[in-house]
Write a structure and sequence with these properties.
This protein is α/β, with parallel strands linked by helices and 403 residues long. The chain folds into two domains: 166 residues, Rossmann fold (3-Layer(aba) Sandwich), CATH 3.40.50; 176 residues, Argininosuccinate synthetase, chain A, domain 2, CATH 3.90.1260. A five-stranded parallel sheet has the order 3-2-1-4-5, sandwiched between helices. It has a five-stranded antiparallel sheet with strand order 10-9-8-13-14.
Length: 403
């Protein structure tokens, strides 16, 4: 019998997927893989749970550092944010998980990998496209799709019928997908797009009424477009994001409710909490405005959009994404400096920015005679040159009207 490796989070979908696979392929041929990506819900005990439910072997790994270094930071310094405002926390996690599934499958001699993604999720696309790029010889299984468990009520009924031990069956109003870079929330019924999002949807960030009355000030340091220190304290990526997440969440920063176009062709109301990512992207944009030339900054925004699309659509392992990294690395070589961010009542704003590579000069911007270094005498020639085509056009139009 052939072996299969299942991405296992312990959520309702992966519990049902494990149960389906065990019945189809037998207890000795199903292997689970669990990734610790900084989710607040503990991964402790998931291996034991998987074994109890019929897995032959289980694997669990702390992937937080690799997630940040190899996926979050490359997309972040590219400025990759979807039009909806989504900062790609889960889109970036999926190719990492698939790469691990492929590795384990090859080590264990498995010919298949599997996921427990919902029937209308983007993640099913990301899993299967990433797998095709990394290991086209492996078959990708979607047990929920093949079993007809495509809707949430069907999944709940299946779990109850087979007595699968998940709290989500008992408290199934919300489904939360989470890692250290952000979380997404869905609930059991499609919401009315005109109604406000219920407060109890949000699990990470405080409501406006609960936030402190005094502001918090943060100093974020960057080296070549990558955050490297917080308030003067050098930090690795994981710890820096975790610290930012806590302070931003305390001040209610990072909530997003948006209308999003899913890859399967439908619109969905999406709710995200992305406290650390919100602050980091604001800080990076401020540093870019100080350091980059207008032409480079404008083209980098074009690249950012394309980069975000590739990550969102599951093409992380594409040649184009890798080629864009070369441009981003070159564009970010001078993005070294500090940005001061002030948080207050669910808002964050830039309150200071500095860099030794900054193109801002007080002497050039001075509005008075004292200290003014700007060469005003060259302006007349510049004005005459750029306005020459307009003058010629107007002159030609006047002669035609005269005739």
């Amino acid at each position: 019998m052939e072996k299969v490796v299942l991405a296992f989070s312990g959520g309702m979908g992966t519990l049902a997927a494990l149960h389906v696979l065990r019945r189809r392929y037998g207890r000795d041929n199903v292997i689970t893989y669990t990734a610790n990506l900084g989710q607040k819900s503990s991964t402790e005990g998931l291996c034991e749970r998987a074994m109890q439910l019929g897995a032959a072997y289980t694997h669990i790994a702390d992937l937080r550092e690799r997630f940040v270094d190899d996926f979050v930071w490359p997309a972040f310094r590219a400025g990759a944010v979807c039009d909806s405002g989504y900062m790609l926390a889960h889109a970036l996690a999926r190719p990492l998980i698939v790469s691990e599934l492929v590795r384990v499958a090859r080590e264990e001699g498995a010919t298949m990998i599997a996921h427990g993604c919902a029937g209308k999720s983007n993640d099913q696309v990301r899993f299967e496209v990433s797998a095709a790029a990394l290991a086209p010889e492996l078959q990708v299984l979607s047990p929920l799709r093949t079993q007809g468990l495509l809707r949430r009520d069907e999944l709940i009924t299946y779990c109850k019928k087979h007595r699968l031990p998940t709290k989500q069956v008992r408290d199934s109003r919300f489904s939360i997908t989470e890692n250290l870079y952000g979380s997404s929330v869905q609930w059991d019924k499609a919401p009315d797009a005109f109604e406000p999002v219920p407060e109890d949807v949000f699990r990470q960030t405080r409501s406006l009424a609960e936030t402190p009355d005094t502001p918090a000030e943060l100093l974020i340091s960057f080296k070549e477009g990558i955050p490297c220190a917080l308030d003067g304290d050098p930090l690795g990526g994981v710890e820096l994001i975790e610290r930012l997440r806590e302070v931003a969440a305390e001040h209610g920063v990072g909530r997003l409710s948006t209308m999003e176009d899913r890859l399967i062709g439908i619109k969905m109301v999406e709710v995200y909490e992305q406290p650390a990512a919100t602050i980091l992207h604001m800080a990076l944009r401020a540093l870019e405005r100080l350091v980059l030339s207008p032409e480079l900054a404008a083209f980098k925004r074009v690249i950012a959009r394309r980069y975000a699309d590739l990550a969102y659509e599951g093409f992380w392992f594409s040649e184009l994404r890798q080629a864009l990294d070369a441009f981003v690395g070159n564009a970010c070589q001078f993005l070294t400096g500090d940005v001061r961010i002030t948080l207050l009542k669910s808002t964050c704003r830039v309150s200071g920015v500095r860099s030794r590579y900054g193109l801002y000069r007080q002497g050039l911007a001075a509005p008075t005679t004292e200290g003014d270094e700007f060469a005003h005498q060259g302006l007349q020639g510049y004005m005459d040159t750029i306005s020459q085509p307009l003058k010629l056009r107007q002159s030609g139009d006047s002669r035609r009207r005269a005739r």
